[in-house]
Amino acid sequence: MARNANTLSHRLRNLDAYAKTLDDFSIKTISGATVTLISAAIILTLLLSEFMDYCSVDLRPELTVDKTRGEKMTINLNITFPHAPCFLLNLDVMDATGEQQVSVDHDIYKVRLDTLGNPIDEMRETHRAATQADGQGTAANTPAVPYCGSCYGGTSPSGGKCCNTCDDVRRAYSALGWAFANPDDFEQCVREHWKENLAKQNKEGCTIHGFIEVNKVSGNFHIMAGQSALHNNIHIHAIYSYMPEDYDFTHTINHLSFGTKYPNMVNPLDGAGKDSPTTTTYG
What we know:
By secondary structure, this protein is α+β, with helices and mostly antiparallel strands. It is built from 6 helices and 12 strands. Among the domains are: 125 residues, no CATH class; 63 residues, no CATH class.
């Protein structure tokens, strides 16, 4: 039995392709040690490089063409004009398809700023103006209730037939692209002393913030002085007598981003500013 086991063990040894010599016949040399160290260094280097490659992130930039045409893109903005009053500024959008958005006011908000750049509490200003008006005996000019002011051919912004304030008339005209040239032609504006109140705002600033939705085509949006209007499908900006003749378009872009936000998004224009010289208009 033991003989058979030895025979089997001998046969297995014959299958060893890497037979080793006895220690008595092996010699340890410096060259052999050098080869061993170099081999170990190479193996360690390969292991480390593979591990680092496994842990690293492979960035592969790809550019794809958006083939959709009906979808909209959102533009978020927050821009401060420290020396231009809010009533002077209008935001318009134009694109390559011919679509135009004139005097955009939906989802766009204007914040009046004082000469120090602080927001003005408009509710307090309105209350103060009303108190002064009552003190001057102008309550007699208050329209009777119920009151339905004329829109003078325009369309009421509320969807009805009444334009009870000067701003309602202005928005009604703007919706049709009509010029709001002389507020004194409208009873609501005269009653509210609209021109006089605007004159008090000439030294104020303005922050415009919100978002607009545009077509995914080439185009532009701009903030300009004056009332925007369409005349024979031509985009124009009209400056009227009740607007200041000198204005400064110095501005700071607090925020400007395009499309959906994502983590670590970088907006290169955030914080950018531009000093513009004072511009004079001639009517």
